[in-house]
């Protein structure tokens, strides 16, 4: 497969963007790097003249944007996702620079959709939203002023992906990755089982599920592995209801 | 010398810029990457409210910009210069990607000023202006739409310089990794539990344990995570022996 085609599988997901100009600028940044799949989650702005003016020659990308109610909807079907954030978290998901992350993101994107997620200009992404993504992306920046404009962050990340297309050979993933919605369904089933086991107290859950999410995010789940884990959960439920 | 100080010697030179917003956005892009020396050659716009709004937290960079009549004036004192251009020229100047050029530019900037030069939004740089610079910079781009916004081009080039300062190394949270023998003991306990659950048939184990080992190996186990997993196993064994 032509590595340029991997770019066709890259979704740029903008969450709750406030300024239409930034949506337009992000579309332009995408197209200059060969990306076309823009997803807008609950945008706080319209696709207006300002957006079209700043999209410049990338109005086609802007007009083809998919509008979603939730981040989950935008991540439907993806096999990998990375959330761009400048903030440090107390419970860090695996965090990489765009350069470190790009080879694996592009490798996964040869076969299936991959999402890069960007939060709102003022509030970024919530912890809940961050946790839906497998990796965090931290753009190296001036520690005294890390605040890249939204479209500038899209430009840098897209540039890193693009840099792998020209002249580099990407390794093919040797397995089938589980999809976002399958993994989320597994997390829900896992939580239910842990509650059934009295291991997780729903009234005092502490940080158990976030910690387990982080662990699974670090590994990345293949489809066959997910089937194994679901089998384990089913066996636990069965054993629990069958005294021996 | 601290490599971050080399950034103090990088001049960003904007030639005949038309839109004040782009000057402001370029200032912001610079500051996020730790650059502060902005030179404006015959700007076609004023430093107005639009420029200040888009500079956001980088108004200081904007206000400190040096205004020059000519490119020659902006290049006074520099020991190296590179002109960003997407166009192929008949002039066979050395052309590099920002990534290829960054090490030498930063190396030179440790001792003396180095300039990155960006042309106007519509006309770019004239051949005469290009010839005043030592190198050309070509940002890898979509051949069907190479038109990066001016500030986006500044962002990408500044990001490449910055990446040499931080060495691409993000300080990772210092978790305590589980030890080999602890992990092996966990695998044995996991195997026992899976047999107890009738999920693993010891007479026909197939590839289940090797697959699970591979999964855990990919994630890498921290000590606290290992404690969680051991807790889960204990909860399963307890639930199994307690009909409810």
If you had to describe this structure to a student in words, what would you say it looks like?
The structure is a homodimer of 244-residue chains. By secondary structure, chain A is α/β, with parallel strands linked by helices. Chain A folds into 2 domains: 3-165, SPOUT methyltransferase, trefoil knot domain (Alpha/beta knot); 180-240, Helicase, Ruva Protein, domain 3. Helix content of chain A is 47%, strand content 12%. Chain A contains 11 helices and 7 strands. Chain A has a 7-stranded parallel beta sheet. In chain A, helix 2 (20-32) links the parallel strand 1 and strand 2 (37-41). In chain A, helix 2 (20-32) packs parallel to helix 3 (49-55), helix 2 runs parallel beside helix 8 and helix 9 packs parallel to helix 11 (223-240). The mean pLDDT of chain A is 91. Chains A and B meet through helix 2, strand 5, helix 8, helix 10 and helix 11 of A and helix 2, helix 8, helix 10 and helix 11 of B.
Note the main attributes of this structure.
homodimer; 244 residues; alpha/beta; Alpha/beta knot; Helicase, Ruva Protein, domain 3; 7-stranded parallel beta sheet
Domain count of chain A: 2
Structural class of chain A: alpha/beta
Report the span from N to C terminus of chain A: 54 Å
What kind of sheet is the major sheet of chain A?
Answer: 7 strands, parallel
CATH superfamily of the largest domain in chain A: SPOUT methyltransferase, trefoil knot domain
Q: What top-tier CATH class of the largest domain in chain A fits best? A: Alpha Beta
The strands making up the biggest β-sheet of chain A line up spatially as 3-2-1-6-4-7-5
Helix-residue proportion of chain A:
40-55%
Task: Assign an overall shape of chain A.
Answer: elongated
Number of beta strands of chain A: 7
Number of helices of chain A: 11
Written as H for each helix and E for each strand, in order along the chain, the element string of chain A is HEHEHHEHEEHEHEHHHH
Regions of chain A with pLDDT < 50 over 5+ consecutive residues?
A: none
């Amino acid at each position: 497969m032509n590595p340029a085609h991997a770019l066709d599988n890259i979704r740029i997901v903008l969450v709750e963007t406030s300024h239409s100009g930034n949506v337009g600028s992000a579309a332009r940044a995408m197209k200059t790097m060969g990306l076309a799949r823009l997803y807008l989650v609950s945008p706080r702005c319209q696709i207006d003249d300002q957006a079209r003016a700043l999209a410049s020659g990338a109005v086609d990308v802007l007009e083809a944007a998919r509008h979603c109610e939730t981040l989950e909807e935008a991540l439907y079907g993806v096999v990998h996702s990375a959330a761009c954030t400048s903030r440090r978290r107390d419970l860090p998901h695996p965090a990489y620079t765009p350069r470190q992350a790009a080879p694996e993101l592009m490798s996964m994107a040869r076969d299936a959709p991959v999402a890069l997620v960007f939060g709102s200009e003022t509030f970024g992404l919530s912890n809940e939203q961050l946790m839906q993504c497998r990796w965090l992306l931290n753009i190296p920046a001036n520690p005294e002023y890390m605040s890249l404009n939204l479209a500038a962050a899209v430009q840098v990340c897209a540039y890193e992906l693009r840099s792998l297309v020209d002249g580099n050979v990407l390794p093919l993933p040797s397995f089938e990755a589980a999809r976002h919605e399958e993994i989320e369904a597994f997390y829900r089933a896992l939580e239910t089982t842990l509650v059934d086991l009295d291991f997780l107290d729903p009234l005092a859950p502490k940080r158990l599920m976030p910690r387990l999410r982080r662990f699974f995010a670090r590994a990345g789940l293949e489809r066959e592995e997910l089937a194994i884990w679901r089998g384990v959960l089913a066996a636990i439920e069965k054993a629990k209801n069958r005294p021996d």
